[in-house]
Design a protein that fits this description.
The protein has a domain of about 55 residues. Helix content is about 50%, strand content about 0%. The radius of gyration is 29 Å and the shape is elongated.
Amino acid sequence: MLLVLVLFVFGPDRLPGMAADAGRALRRLRAYVKDMSADLREELGPEIADLDLRSLHPREIVRRNLFEDDDEDPQPAVASLRPGELPPWDPDTT
């Protein structure tokens, strides 16, 4: 439906040229984004070289944290004491 509307608005003689212009613009945009992400990685240094920018998208963060199962058992936040064992105590901190 949209293609027929564009055909009527711009005409059959201008449509191929517009499609070629749109393709060139898309290629330039992709090259610009690729160069920009390469510059960003270069500026951030080797510590961030393996950073995947797609992993920072909010939808990806929600999917990873809510819908993926963790295979590992979470570590307890506090170490448990054996029966009869006294907790560590430091008189300088109390």
